[in-house]
Amino acid sequence: MKYKPVIGLEVHVELKTKSKMFCSCFAAYFGEKPNTNTCPVCLGLPGALPVPNQKAIEWCVMIGLSLGCKIPPFSKFDRKNYFYPDLPKGYQISQYDEPFCLNGTITLKSGKKIGIRRVHMEEDTGKLLHERINGEKVSLIDFNRSGVPLVEIVTEPDFESAKEVVEYLKKLQQIVRYLDVSDADMEKGNMRLEPNISLARSTWQIAGSKSYEPHATRHLPSYKVEVKNINSFRFVEKAIEYEIKRQEEILDSGKTPVQETRGWDEKKGQTVSQRIKEEANDYRYFPEPDIPPIRFTQDQISEIKSQIGELPDAKFERFKKEFNLSDYDGEILTREKPMAEFFEEAVKVGKKHNVNPKQIANFLINRDVDVNATLPAQLIQIILNSTQTDQIDEKELGKIIDKVLKENLKAVSDYKNGKQNAIMFLIGQVMKNFKKRLDASSIKNILISKIQ
Amino acid sequence: MKLNELTIKQAREGLKTKKFSSVELTKACLEQIKKHNKSLNAFITVTEKEALEQAKAADELISSGQDLPLLGIPIALKDLFSTKGIKTTAGSKVLENYIPTYDATVVRKLKDAGAIIIGKTNLDAWAHGSSGENSDFGPTKNPWNKEYVPGGSSSGSAVSVASDMCIASTGTDTGGSIRLPASFCNVVGLKPTYGRVSRYGIIAMASSLDSIGHFTKTVEDSRLFLSVTAGKDSMDATILEKEYNAKPLNKIKIGVDPDFLSKSLEIETHNLLAKAYNVFKNDLGIEDFIPDVSLPHQEYGIACYYIIQPAEVSSNLARYDGIRYGNDRSFFGDEAKRRIMLGTYTLSAGYYDAYYKRAMQVRTLIKQDFDTAFEKVDAIIAPVSPTPPWKIGEKVNDPLKMYLSDKFTVTANLAGIPGLSIPIGLSNGLPVGMQILGPQFSEGLLFQIGRAYEDATKEEEWRKLKPKL
């Protein structure tokens, strides 16, 4: 490939705290009647003041700690000033130069580390709805979402493919769900992402260097394209791949792609230009005077740390080791926390009934058990019952095996003479005669013992 | 003495002993408003009906033996304080028809303490100004001489107390907006410590500087009023509850910066201040009178203030887009537009470090000046304004000259310390005041000093004068 994609990511995660970031209004807005969860603060009425939600700050720090970030002892909120009808105060309370969390990483399966530059706290905006009422085009604003806590996670431009981006996003979603601080549902908009994509000529890589170059020493392309309106993992992959192709063609023709914001149009399957940035936006950031700076003590940080349970990566490694699971089983069982917890509980119960972890894992993975509607003890009972049913059928199975052995004497002698394939033929015959599904290895054992 | 001329203390006693009712007291104030508001333009809105209803309810409570700190006392609110169901304009045409859906915390506290809200007072639009002339509803006049400014921005609130239209009133002080009009109108004005009184519901000018205070006729009333408005509020994250240690009067050390007396003080003002200093020295028994406390960065106060304040103003006024309430941005007056432009400029990329950041550094130095001074002394006495009140129209076309009238007051806001402005006499028939500055949360000390001064000068001729309306 002539070019090397350079991709960075900004992800917004909406926290599921009970109340909003700076007022006591309910934060859950999905499906609510417009403008019913509002107050002077989130409507930006004259005189209203923000009071930060402590829980949201703790959760933001918790996300940061889970991503291996440093938590500086001093932090503050800033005002990001810009006009937009969905922004009632004319500024968004965010964090500029002193965010809650700095310098973390997420490690991909390949071992490649994606750098996380910062994790900061801010507030969501209202929602604009463009509609036609009595034939007239109107824009409506719903402020239920205004002031809902948002955590922004910004990576270094460390991704080189759409696949890496998707893997990172799935990991991030998994961590946030493990922490139980957000539903992180892309369709509902509580996880939003904006990739920025550019292509670098491959020659910038130092000749002969084998190792991965840390971002700090790389030359980044002179432009970057931001893509918005992506609301699923599938689309992020498509959008990035589309962008890479588009930019490649421009570069091939000897031009440089324009620095701009593009939107993903899922109907066309294309990115479409939205806004061309001549220079960086000037948000006129300054420290939010209504909120005193925040200082964390080591004790407070330790306290937040202690609330973080086992994270997916650690759980995966432990499951593999402790329960002797394959990578495949381990990954499926630790993908979601309720499943992992259910499995561990079932292993405990299973131990008393001689049901081993592998049996439980197989059952959970193959039978699509609803862990929210089943108790671990119930599952063990089901597993026990299913093995008992097989035992009852054993008499009949014995008869069938005897019959198969009598009718296929040639195969029996072939096996005795060392033809390993003959046993497979016999297993097939048993299975054909026996209506239900059978475990081939146990039939094999019975056959061998009877032949000898 | 007319009922409306009473102090809070006197009115409370009269109400308690049933010498008169709250309805009578309220009517006396309303009467005075009717007589003189046309010429003074102190009120934008008079809430006669509501006030009389509240007064009636207060009388019933008094009869039932109820005792609340401001029960039945008519007060006026600067029209920057959100009042549920009552128009709140901020002195600007942008909000000429805006009716808040909620009460500011201080308004709620005052109501809970039994106060009667008699109306909303005139001010420089958005509290931008030192003279009251920036109001979109016409300038307020000085009751001592109607050709002169009453000081701003809390002009109507100062005038309403000075002309006995109410017993006390609220104000806000971002760079002197309480202390200056108090000094120009011969009333007591308190700018409390930043973080002492909740700002929730009060239309913000510059959030890191805004202090919520009040005007009264005496220092004792000011103390009482603060005891109602101060304290924790779950709606304001910047409130602290602290108390500066009290001291007996003869143990108090008072300092003066000699620069204050020499630099650009108009001669009459200078003489009155010198006289006041002598009262402290000779009559109050204050042994430790330190005449050489220095505040070396005081002179950068205005420069620093006029960067930080417009920066915050430009952001705070962004919400007035006319979408949810009020008129659109074309309704802003010249001064608001000037500050929006100044602030937008100093916060812009490339200018932030040279202006805003630098001003914040100077602000720290000004704060440190006071910290150092308060290691040596308990309080500092200083002029409020370099000049007595000026004629209406005199500075209106020279914003810089207008800004400089705040040169002695802005530093207290930059440092977040309290300042009490008290009358010290008249210069050619126009009032002059002095401010007492103390460390953060030392209001108790300021009241102590202010009262001592009041007592020592109570027999002076000028104290018996009233403005001729």
Question: Care to give the gist of this entry?
Answer:
Helices cover 39% and strands 21% of the residues of chain A. Chain A contains 14 helices and 15 strands.
What is this structure's SSE topology?
The complex is a heterodimer of chains A (452) and B (469).
Chain A: E1 3-14, H1 40-43, H2 54-66, E2 74-75, E3 78-81, E4 91-94, E5 101-107, E6 113-123, E7 127-133, E8 136-142, E9 149-155, H3 162-179, E10 191-201, E11 225-228, H4 233-252, E12 260-265, E13 270-276, E14 286-287, E15 294-295, H5 298-306, H6 312-323, H7 327-334, H8 337-352, H9 357-367, H10 376-392, H11 394-407, H12 409-416, H13 421-433, H14 440-451
Parallel strand pairs in A: 11-12
Antiparallel strand pairs in A: 1-9, 1-10, 2-15, 3-4, 3-14, 5-6, 6-9, 7-8, 10-11, 12-13
Helix pairs in contact in A: 3-4, 6-7, 8-9, 8-10, 11-13, 11-14, 12-13, 13-14
Chain B: H1 8-16, H2 22-40, E1 43-46, H3 48-63, E2 74-78, H4 105-112, E3 116-121, H5 155-162, E4 168-173, H6 179-185, E5 188-191, E6 211-216, H7 219-229, E7 254-255, H8 258-262, H9 267-283, E8 289-290, H10 301-316, H11 334-347, H12 353-376, E9 379-383, H13 399-404, H14 410-415, E10 419-427, E11 430-437, H15 443-456
Structure description:
The complex is a heterodimer of chains A (452) and B (469). Chain A has 452 residues and is of the alpha+beta class. Chain A has 14 helices and 15 strands. Chain A has helices at 40-43, 54-66, 162-179, 233-252, 298-306, 312-323, 327-334, 337-352, 357-367, 376-392, 394-407, 409-416, 421-433, 440-451, and strands at residues 3-14, 74-75, 78-81, 91-94, 101-107, 113-123, 127-133, 136-142, 149-155, 191-201, 225-228, 260-265, 270-276, 286-287, 294-295. In chain A, the strands form four sheets. Chain A has an eight-stranded mixed β-sheet with strand order 5-6-9-1-10-11-12-13. Chain A has a three-stranded antiparallel β-sheet with strand order 4-3-14, with no helix packed on it. In chain A, strands 2-15 form a two-stranded antiparallel sheet. In chain A, helix 3 (162-179) runs antiparallel to helix 4 (233-252). The longest helix of chain A is centred in the middle third of the chain and has 20 residues, at 233-252. Chain A is elongated. Chain A starts with a strand and ends with a helix. Chain B has 469 residues and is of the alpha/beta class. In chain B, strands 1-3-2-4-6-5-10-11-9-7-8 form an eleven-stranded mixed β-sheet, sandwiched between helices. In chain B, helix 4 links the parallel strand 2 (74-78) and strand 3 (116-121). Classes of the chains: A alpha+beta (452), B alpha/beta (469). Chain A binds chain B through residues 40-41, 43-52, 79, 81, 83, 85, 88-91, 141, 280, 282, 284-286, 289-292, and chain B through 81-82, 88, 90, 95, 98, 100-102, 104, 199-204, 206-208, 234-238, 311-312, 314-315, 317-321, 323-325, 344, 347-349, 352, 356.
